[in-house]
Amino acid sequence: MSDVTIRGLNKRYGQTQVLHDIDLDIPSGEFVVLLGPSGCGKSTLLRCISGLESITSGGLMIEGRRANDIPARKRGVAMVFQSYALYPHMTVRENMAYGLKLRKMEKAKIDATVNGAAERLQLTPFLDRLPKALSGGQRQRVAIGRAIVQDPKLFLFDEPLSNLDASLRVQMRIEIAQIHRQLSQTTMIYVTHDQVEAMTMADRIVVLEGGHIRQVGKPLDLYRRPNSLFVAGFIGSPKMNFITGPMAQSRGAATIGVRPEALDVTDPTDAEISGEIVHSEELGAFTFLYIKGADDAEPMVVQQPGQTSYSEGTVVGLRPVPEEIHRFGTDGNRLGEGDPEIRTAN
Amino acid sequence: MTFARTRAVFSGFVAYAVLTAFAIFALTPLVLMFATAFKPSVEIFQIPPRLLPDQWTLGNFQTVLFESDIPVYALNSLVVGGGTTLVALTLGCAAGYGFSRFRFTGSSFFLLAMLVGQLVPLAALIVPFYLLFDGFRLIDTYGALIIGHLTVVLPLVVWMATSYIDTIPRELEEASIMDGASRLGTLWRITLPLAFPGMVAIGVFAFLNSWNEFVLASIIGVTNASRTLPVGLTEFAGMFTTDWGSTMAASVLMTVPVLIAFLFFQKYFVKGLAAGAVK
Fold this sequence. Notes:
The complex is a heterodimer. By secondary structure, chain A is an alpha+beta fold.
């Protein structure tokens, strides 16, 4: 159990600044996801917290204690790596017992701890196998098991599911969420660029872009009230439709954003926007229609429930649900109502 | 038979023919060496020449083992080769780990600079080496030979070790550190065991280089105290005659242990070289 406080954290590699004045408070037991596109600094932030990277300036407190100068091995932090990083010359049992042996734990206690974690992660039949004899999902479970047995104060995950196939990813997502429920007192920080992982697992999401925190909030708060064009476009799939020009200006904004499910398809004569259906994707439960207007802008995406009778080439009108319109200013920031739950970072 | 099939059979045939020719080219001296070692001296220059002896004899081996100093030279070669290998592995792997894992000012320069020494032919170094070792009163000692061989072997060993350690994912070391190990502990428990195939390859490379080295050994190893096998083999060559039977028997004795060791370590050697080593 541990709370993490980050104040004005900066990270530089020579002349390149990777993290800019990061401020973040993570209470004990929270599952926080660091989300952002490739190169946004999320993994670097995680590695700064782990101690694998030094902090250029600013403060990192773990359990109220300044951790900047505490070596990684003494921070009481466990980490699950993207590539699993299992020791290939050791069996699953030896992998899981490695850290406990280093702590000079009694053999009987090591066995009990490893067996307990293996049972929890359904790894008991594989304890005497080498990592190369395991599937991707099993390897990931071993990596998690190796971290669990440490009984860490803080659990760090660096894109742990990105090497798995889609179905296994869903399964492991559920398993990690279950582990978090079981270890409800353990703080977990999870890095991903997959917004579905972030939305489904996080207590709170930290959205990063270019080394800056863009927004921190609960998943649905970020979805419903993104504080900038970047967050609005990054959270949600398919992404939010952005409209500029007279339609936005008539609502006092430089840009307005409408989610695909907040656009109604109407008669073209009776709508603010009209265009031709250029593509449709039928997913069974939903159909996504891609509608191209007269200008050269990207096609608008509309989500329709179930299957639709619209065929490609049909000209339709679109009407946004008024209360679902997000307004953004010329600086890209959200206009309008403030929300105390959503904080705009620096 | 289709054209594609004919072509595949033909190219297979050509490949095997070329490889067989190379194999014969490479193995003929070895076969001749073994055959000659078991021939009585009258048969060695027999006309017409025969590959296998009419009368097999162990006389040449008897001469080599009991009437010459070859066993002493073998021991010297073993000590010098072993010493060179041990020091090269210790220093080379430590340096390789440093070059692979740490960024420091001039690391690329140092790595390149080490190879510059390789550009100078050993023959050009003999006089400076002799003067240097003489100054330290090291002529005719194991130490001088080991140091001399290290100057040739160590730069390549450092390069091989750097390349090999580069292939071991850093994340494994980071995971070990997160598990609570120190960097030295991680090196001992994770990196070195994983580098084992590479170390075997590097060790075999260092040992073979030292075991076969002639030029330096012939200048520094002047007496039985440090004369090595390649130099010792010349003992059977007199001013007017050469005892080819004994020379070949000694060559067999010199080759067989290395051959056996190489076959034993072949698996690691190939794995180590395939993993990105320099040679």
